[in-house]
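[agent] plan:
  1. take the single chain provided in the ticket
  2. run structure prediction with default settings
  3. attach structure tokens to the ticket
  4. add a short note for the reviewer (M.T.)
[agent] executing step 1
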Amino acid sequence: MYERSGITLHSGKRALVLARLQKRLRSGGFGSFKDYLGYVESDTSGAEVTALLDAIATNHTSFFREPQHFEFLRSTVVPSHGNVPIRIWSAACSSGEEPVTIAITLLDALERNQRPRIRILASDLSTKALTIATSGIYKMERVAGIPLDTLRRHFERGLGSHAGQARVAAHVRRLIEYRQLNFLEAGDLGERFEVIFCRNVMIYFDRDIQQRVVSLLERHLAPGGYLFISHSESLNGISHGLRWVAPAIYQRVTA
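[agent] step 2 finished; step 3 output follows
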């Protein structure tokens, strides 16, 4: 896991590994974790390594999580950009709740004739999470915390086989491009972003991997761009040229 994703599975993660992988063992008919590990290492197709990464890397998320970030995006980032296109990277998007929230926040903050200037890249290591994100379909309990007016304007009620579910409306979905991406294998994405969200992922990395990830993110920030991390994370002890501007928000001040 560490070699492929940077995720550190120390002894304190034993319960998580047990919970996440028992289903893989049962479905594959493996008698022990040793048997399963042997299969993963011998699978030359790489399919089981991907399944292993999916099982371990899928994390909890929700719409409008850490709402102070979206208020900062609405009240500070949007007004400061005038009519300049806004490019945002949701760098650990999981099942899509974060980029959808970003898109809704921007749509509600911008005038209708300004909306075409929004572009959101949403990436994640987990192909399983990205399948959900790309579909834009969520169980009703997942959207229960969204204000009713917002829900009506930006979601559609599922019909037929999707009854009891909600789907992100097309005008929101078209703003988001989903892409599978491994931080350890990423080089230069070929563009710079005014905003990068990378929240609730660095807590799974050791200091060396955190440094690599922060350096990667910093390189992809446009001058004056903002990096959002989780309130449970910190850049203390990591080398970077970013300026702290608000809790869990940093800004690139150099060209």
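[agent] step 4 note for reviewer: The longest strand covers residues 221-228.
[agent] ticket updated
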